[in-house]
Amino acid sequence: MTLPPSKGSRILGSIANVIQDAFMHHVVPVARQILENQLHVTEYQNGFTIEGRMPNMTRDDITLEYEAPYLMITAAKHNGHYYERSSRTFYLPNADDTKMSGSLEQGLFYLTIPKRNAVTKRLYEDE
Asked: Which pLDDT score is estimated for 120?
């Protein structure tokens, strides 16, 4: 003889379904977005470049926060019922945050940051 499901087991089953739905529709897209935001930093004698993919993001979705010597790049987007957010922090010693320049076109992110007190070669013409 089997007993009919109790009210408590139906509630627990409903809670499990809600959790699974939330995970599959909200957490998984965020995790996927974090993996897709592949940013790479390259250091040169006079500065740094950071470049990578940021699909489905606009300039308004991206924030840069510099607190010497760390630069945090955060991409956040509200999509319907959930909020996607991912960030990366980079160690950039001697970066000059006042002279950063960057672009985001067709999901490709590019940022240049010169170094403070960078030695630049100047060519002088003999008169």
From this structure: 57
Q: Which helix (H) or strand (E) holds 15?
A: helix 7-22
The number of angstroms, rounded, from the C-alpha of 100 to the middle of its chain's C-alpha atoms is: 17
What is the C-alpha separation between 127 and 124, in angstroms, rounded?
Answer: 9
- Domain map (residue ranges) of the chain: 7-114
The model's pTM: 0.63
| CATH architecture classification, 7-114 | Sandwich (2.60)
Grouping H, G, I as helix, E, B as strand and the rest as coil, residue 59 is: helix
Q: β-pairing, 70-79 with 62-67? A: antiparallel
Q: 126 or 83, which is more confident?
A: 83
Interacting residues of 77 by C-beta distance below 8 A, sequence separation 6+: 33, 56, 57, 61, 83, 84, 85
